Amino acid sequence: MTRIIVHDTIAQFQPLFTSRERPKALFSLAEQIFSPQGFMSRLNHELTDRRRNGFDVMSAAQHDGYEALMGQQGWGLFNPSRSRDASDWEFAQYEQAAILQQIEHATRECVQKLELTEAQAAHLPQLQCFLVPADPANRTFMALNHGLSGFGGAPGYLLLRVWPSPGNLARIPAVLARL
């Protein structure tokens, strides 16, 4: 059986995104995410490790959801035009919707419906899910992706970026099923 891990990225991101510090001051605080030992480096390593069927950047660019992985300006963390009030609202909505539990439940349902044989499941011993913040100041993301993007191009990893509108929250299971 595939083990599903939904990382509590909200606990890591919320203090950064709701901080009233200037973006420049957030660089040192965000080191746990963007440093060579941080979560983004680990994820990028998985994407470029061809021994595990990973993808290099140009190959990954051909996949849906690469925008979520790219994390332009730290998913808006370093964007000086990002509204802190919008970030406050976003994280409050994540909590109210119990979004991490929704992601875990939907992912578990998807894996169960796949009905993997033992041999198939051996190739996917665990599935790690990461939620990253949406930047409402990123017009391209909000207009073209409607504030919802997911990347599943690295074996064993799902990356989801959600602006927590009611419509997007309702679409999470469908997005995860497609990844």
Please provide a written account of the structure.
With 179 residues, the protein is an alpha/beta fold. The protein has eleven helices and four strands, in the order βαααααααααβαββα. Strands 1-2-4-3 form a four-stranded mixed β-sheet, with helices on both faces. Helices cover 51% and strands 13% of the residues. The mean pLDDT is 82. α8 runs parallel beside α11. It has one domain.
Q: How would you sum up this structure in a few lines?
A:
The protein is α/β, with parallel strands linked by helices. It contains eleven helices and four strands.
Helical fraction equals: 40-55%
Instruction: Please give the radius of gyration in angstroms.
Output: 16 Å
Largest sheet: 4 strands, mixed
Our count of domains comes out at 1
What's the quaternary structure here? single chain
Helix/sheet category:
alpha/beta
Strand runs, count: 4
Shape: globular
What descriptive keywords fit this protein?
four-stranded mixed beta sheet; 11 helices; 179 residues; globular; alpha/beta; 51% helix; 4 strands
Blueprint (SSEs and pairs):
Layout: E1 3-6, H1 9-17, H2 23-29, H3 31-34, H4 39-48, H5 57-60, H6 66-70, H7 84-96, H8 99-114, H9 118-122, E2 126-132, H10 139-144, E3 148-154, E4 157-162, H11 166-178
